[in-house]
Design a protein that fits this description.
This protein is an alpha+beta fold. The chain contains three helices and six strands, in the order ααββαββββ.
């Protein structure tokens, strides 16, 4: 069972700083580029490339509540392993998928990347970042914002996602229709 500490609230000016690992500028750059390219996969609808960024045991998780520490056996907005991501991909790409008939677009901005843990011997990085996402569909613009938590495993000279946790600021808000793709 995968358990993850809930996201930390934004630190105020007198609070202790967020945990950050000492990392080289090269590692910081590599992780940022990985996250930016992941967002680019979503924005350009390269769904298979997006899924390929996950390790075989990788999990995409959007908890229903920010205080959740596990998605296993708990209600979540999304809790997808590789098999469920492939099922969603088939639905998104099926030529008769009604939900895909109206043209729509996405635009992500990812920033504030903080590497919280780096274990070079194990090839593990844990990082947090913030995102802004705009979705245009049916002549309506929806805005989403929140934080990502990534657990990454080094594979060769690249990275694979072991966990991507998505905590949306407006996750509990009402929506006219459900999210079609990953956030």
């Amino acid at each position: 069972m995968l358990t993850v500490a809930p996201p930390k609230p934004l630190a105020g000016p007198y609070d202790a700083p967020l945990r950050a690992a000492k990392v080289t500028p090269e590692l910081q750059h590599a992780i940022e580029q990985f996250l930016y390219r992941q967002a680019e996969c979503l924005d350009t609808r390269r769904w298979q490339d997006y899924i390929d960024r996950f390790a075989a045991d990788g999990i995409y998780w959007m908890p229903a509540q920010p205080e959740q520490t596990t998605g296993d056996g708990e209600p979540s907005i999304f809790y997808e392993d590789h098999d469920l991501m492939r099922i969603r991909l088939k639905r998104l790409s099926h030529p008769h998928a009604w939900s895909q008939q109206t043209e729509w677009g996405l635009s992500h901005v990812v920033g504030n990347v903080i590497i919280e843990r780096h274990d070079p011997a194990a090839g593990i990085v844990e990082c947090r970042s913030r995102f802004q996402m705009m979705e245009f569909r049916r002549d309506v613009v929806r805005q989403f914002a929140g934080s990502y938590l990534h657990h990454l495993r080094q594979v060769g000279d690249g990275w694979k996602i072991v966990l991507q946790r998505v905590d949306m600021v407006n996750g509990a808000g009402p929506y006219e229709y459900v999210l079609q793709a990953w956030v």
